[in-house]
Amino acid sequence: MKKRTNMKKSFCNVFFLVAFCFILSHARKIKPEKPCKHLTVFYHDIIFNGTNTANATSAATANPTQLGNTNFGMLVVFDDPITKDRLLLSPPIARAQGFYFYDMKDTYNAWFAYTLIFNSTEHKGTINIMGADMMMEETRDLSVVGGTGDFFMARGVATFRTDTQQGTAYFRLQMDIKLYECY
């Protein structure tokens, strides 16, 4: 009886070792030093101030609370143009549609969730981005969590850098998007 139990254990160990080796050999190798796609684009946000209806690309849908002076609790919904260069009036290559909200009481910080929607001759599809934007940092990394079309099931990092800011009325971000999983 003891011999049979040992044979079962040995068989199970060999089975799991073979299964583990099979899974490892078929796992997709991700090389963080070399992205499979790389885009640098510019995100333009013009917040609605009550009088700029024709130009605004975003609007606060929930006002900030009285907890601190960092817009804590303010929710902003946006449909912002994405361009290849820094110029707001350049033809957009995509739209950024989603929201961000200010989520820290003692410093400026926002949490973003949005989709880049590409519909140009160069790219078709979407890239989904989400994460914390620590605005006081020079560069901030947000997660690329999926996509469609040319960016089907994309995974990677979108690095934000504030390119310019004009008070609370307008800001432009440089987005350096590196995709490490491309299908």
Brief overview:
The protein has 183 residues and is mostly beta strands. Helices cover 14% and strands 48% of the residues.
3D architecture notes:
This protein has an 8-stranded antiparallel beta barrel. With 183 residues, the protein is mainly β. The relative contact order is 0.17. Helix content is 14%, strand content 48%. The chain has a single domain, classed as Allene oxide cyclase-like (AOC barrel-like).
Major sheet size, sense and barrel closure? 8 strands, antiparallel, barrel
The share of residues in extended strands comes to over 45%
Q: Secondary-structure element order, as H and E?
A: HEEEEEEEEE
Mean pLDDT: 84
CATH architecture: Beta Barrel
| CATH class category label | Mainly Beta
CATH 4th-level superfamily: Allene oxide cyclase-like
Radius of gyration: 23 Å
- Helix count equals 1
Q: End-to-end span in angstroms?
A: 52 Å
Gross morphology is: globular
Helicity range of the residues?
10-25%
CATH topology: AOC barrel-like
Total strands: 9
Structural class: mainly beta
